[in-house]
Amino acid sequence: MTSTLDWQEGLPFSTQYGDIYFSRESGVAETRHVFLDQNHLTARWPILKDGDRFVIGETGFGTGLNFLCAWQLWDEVAPASARLHFVSTELHPIAPDELRRALALWPELAKWSAQLLARYGVMAPGWHRLTFAQGRVVLTLLIGDARTTLPRLDATVDAWFLDGFAPARNPEMWDTGLFQVMAKRSAPNATFATFTSAGIVRRGLEAAGFQVEKVPGHGKKREMLRGELAGEGRPSAIPARKAIVIGGGLAGCASAHSLAMRGWQVTLIERHASLAAEASGNHQGILYARLMPKMSPLSELTLAGYQYSLRMLAQLLPQSEDTWQQCGLLQLAFDERESARLHGILDLGLPPALLHGVSRSEAGTLAGVELLFGGLMFPGSGWVSPPALCRALMNSPGITLLAGQEASAIVHGHAGWEVHGESGPIAAAPVIVIACANHSRRFAQTAHLPLRSIRGQVTHLPATVQSRAVKTVLCTEGYAAPARHDMHTIGATYGNLEETLELRAADHRENLDMLSHLSPELYAALGGESLDEGCLDGRAACRCNVVDYLPLVGAVSPGLYVNTGHGSRGLMTALLAGEALAATIEEEPAPLPVELMQAISPGRFLSAKTV
Ligand SMILES: Cc1cc2nc3c(=O)[nH]c(=O)nc-3n(C[C@H](O)[C@H](O)[C@H](O)COP(=O)(O)OP(=O)(O)OC[C@H]3O[C@@H](n4cnc5c(N)ncnc54)[C@H](O)[C@@H]3O)c2cc1C
Ligand SMILES: C[S@@+](CC[C@H](N)C(=O)[O-])C[C@H]1O[C@@H](n2cnc3c(N)ncnc32)[C@H](O)[C@@H]1O
Question: Would 52 disulfide with which of 48, 57, 470, 601, CB 3.0-4.6 Å?
Fold first, then answer.
């Protein structure tokens, strides 16, 4: 999947396609001439209004040179509050080291390429969202074949950059079907530009409804193609950028953050005195991308969400013992079934930097403690303090926290939606996001959503001299995390349909039994049989599950949205859900494929009969 890059005379070259990534004379000058000038961006961008967005769609991300040049121009001419979305598809993502080498060719772009390199990382197949400059520039990379990624794209594109390799060498990128999809994903008056003037490309674009003209190419290329779709400009339907979010856990804080990044004024209402007092309140949660050998919607969401959460953590929260540690995670093959599942996951062929197989002795060396099983290593994973992450998400201009206020009803009034508490109105705004986990059902508008409360308890065990040697998170059906402030979190139980939150000795025993199976050595190091489950500390909370295990993210009715149902994997899904919701509200390119957006939408439970 990763590109087979070669270097010829210091320039990147694809051995697979026998073609160059950019012009030998001057890649930057060619990009500016072909893609920026012929899409008339220098004229179109300065006249954008405050808060407007502009969407570029590209085929062939390659080294990201076109992206960087577009971003540079955007910084020069677009209004400060407008936002650029750059959506690009790439079948053979360039490895980070090769990308660094390629971008070093353009010192004049160093200011922008350094930011790209800081976020780029491992590019597994699927959708990746990278956010730059406090949300002013958003890159969505669709890793896969353009013929399968673009039909799944949920976006309205204003300008297309067609940049496959030469049509004769890379015909898949100039497929007539692809041009038809482009036309469907285009805003009225959308433009396109491409370096080629090949007849097959011209005819394909014309057949899809584009008006095509030949204009002078760059350097030695006599001609290139540019053009546009016929049609009227679209009216903007975005309401005043004011929203209320109800619920101060991961889902609510992530929703508030993504809206604030788009210039929204957000009031977050939380019934407790502080954020993250319920499910998001554990000292340590783990970043576990639980996948299946066959990619299901849940696996695809988990994989995209895992990588998005890692990027957001790197961006928002410096690592420390208080916040999070990217210490790696080992999923152990603790029985035959699990071993078969892990082998199936390895067969997906995901990049080894994302996950790779390890033998029993390798696992023990990585973990710093003897283990009975090998399994999968996720080097980028680790543990996170969800409350620290919630606070970091809320630390954005434009967010006001109303703590200690409980929302009891939502009504539609003169000023849009109003949130009421027991003693009267709390706040009003045109947009509301309900992120109250199981309590989302208390509002008449969302009472039909099929949510289930699943109690869970974690056990806190004081670190010992031997247990401090544990370096990575260890997982079987449960997990054990390396010590945070001299305390290990071991968890978590899974109690069906329960809501009580008292600590139970039997649940501690269940966690200890899980630990003794996970690693007898670690169990002994932490006290083993001398541990008295009646005297242990821990924490209990309720997960919020949806019957189909996918979260609920999207519109319930105009202006009313939910972000909930994150079950046992909120650290993987809640942040990306907040971003998906903000993209939906702003009618921007979605960070997930269209059918996955539908799969998580509350619209799948339209009728109260499904409860
Ligand atoms: C024991 C346990 C262990 C877990 N371990 C992991 C893990 O290792 N990794 C992982 O990814 N996930 C884990 N999870 C799951 C994860 O914690 C959740 O998916 C995530 O915290 C859900 O976030 P949320 O914002 O949807 O819900 P919550 O954190 O529950 O937030 C909902 C918020 O809404 C507020 N609220 C509710 N009603 C109202 C109202 N009417 N007015 C105002 N405010 C209101 C609540 O007070 C609360 O703060 C675990 C969960 C449990 C219970
Ligand atoms: C000319 S290069 C793109 C250069 C790039 N725009 C830049 O700024 O560096 C063409 C790119 O298209 C990619 N590509 C080829 N076939 C593809 C396909 N079927 N789907 C998606 N990308 C493809 C190649 O891997 C390569 O990165």
Answer: 48
For the stretch 434-460, pLDDT in tens is 999 999 999 999 999 999 999 999 999
- Tell me if the pTM is above 0.85: yes
Half-sphere exposure of 182 (CA within 13 A, CB side): 36
Amino acid at position 435, single letter: A
158-185 pLDDT per residue, tens: 999 999 999 999 999 999 999 999 999 9
Structure tokens of 50? Answer: 């405050």
The residue type of 86 is F
Cβ-count burial of 199 within 10 angstroms (0-12 exposed, 13-18 middle, 19+ buried)? exposed
- What lies within 8 Å, CB to CB, of 414 at 6+ separation is none
Residue by residue, DSSP assigns 27-67 as HHHHHIIIIIITTTHHHHTTTPPTT-EEEEEEE--TTSHHH
Ligand nearest to the CA of 141: 2
Run of H or E including 246: strand 242-246
Q: Using a 6 Å CB cutoff, which residues line ligand 1?
A: 246-252, 269-272, 277-280, 282, 285-286, 386, 406-407, 435-437, 439, 456-458, 491-492, 541-544, 564, 566-572, 574
